[in-house]
Automatic annotation (TrEMBL):
The keyword Membrane applies. The chain crosses the membrane at residues 6-30, 50-70, 82-105, 130-151, 163-183, 195-213. Keywords: Membrane, Transmembrane, Transmembrane helix. Residues 8-209 form the Urease accessory protein UreH-like transmembrane domain. The keyword Ligase does not apply. InterPro entries: UreH-like_TM_dom. It comes from Vibrio aquimaris. This is Urease accessory protein UreH-like transmembrane domain-containing protein. Coiled coil: none annotated.
């Protein structure tokens, strides 16, 4: 496991409160509509979501690494890594509710989402728990500042495979909270509203972003 994979996993865990706010409603709705299958539905839904993250990470990581290779611009990925670190700082502000600049970036994905969303809506109500898998595949494309910020790390990962692994690590970090909210909605409300957890998580992501900025600037200065 590379440091970026581990970092993406931690971001997923720390950003769980945001995930519950963005996707928790639909996850709990799916379980409510299938009470007899309340365990299987969130499992299939989140596996589908994880597959989508993997595909998105592979596309972004592969595309950016290919462009960097053929452009023959020295240190191009290093500069992009600096941008990724700045996105981590923006993400910290977003989670901590200190500044909501990432909302504007989320809005950029709304046009694409309007084209994709009907595919997921056509699967409701779920005929069986297995239908939650393709539903999760669609819902993984929901515009989300947390996902977009992590995608910047996938973009500078150097390959499609590394980009996929970074997004899978992120998805695995969000998985416990999303499974929990899908299985037991009432117990997640306190976690989602916990100001201490949100502020602590935002502070950790901010430190991670600042550390990466410092390390990247050092690399650029030394070359």
């Amino acid at each position: 496991m590379t440091p970026d994979w581990f970092g993406a996993f931690l971001i997923g865990i720390i950003g769980a409160g945001h995930c519950m706010g963005m996707c928790g409603g639909i996850a709990s709705l799916l379980s409510t509509n299938s009470p007899s299958q309340s365990v299987l539905v969130p499992i299939f839904y989140n596996v589908g979501r994880l597959i989508s993250y993997c595909v998105i990470g592979a596309i972004v990581g592969g595309a950016i690494s290919t462009v960097a290779e053929f452009s023959q611009v020295n240190q191009s990925l290093t500069w992009l890594r600096l941008i990724a670190a700045l996105f981590m700082i923006l993400l910290a502000c977003y989670i901590g509710k200190w500044w909501h600049g990432l909302v504007y970036i989320e809005r950029l994905g709304q046009k694409l989402w309007k084209r994709i969303a009907p595919a997921g809506q056509s699967l409701l109500p779920l005929k069986s728990p297995l239908y939650a898998l393709p539903f999760g595949l669609v819902w993984g494309w929901l515009p989300c500042g947390l996902v977009y910020s992590t995608l910047t790390w996938a973009a500078v990962s150097g390959s499609a495979l590394n980009g996929a692994f970074i997004m899978v690590a992120f998805g695995l970090g969000t998985m416990p909270a999303m499974l929990f909210i899908g299985i037991s909605v009432s117990h997640t409300n306190k976690l989602q509203k916990s100001n201490f957890l949100r502020q602590s998580g935002a502070a950790l992501i901010l430190l991670y972003g600042l550390y990466t900025v410092q390390q990247t600037i050092t690399l650029l200065s030394a070359s």
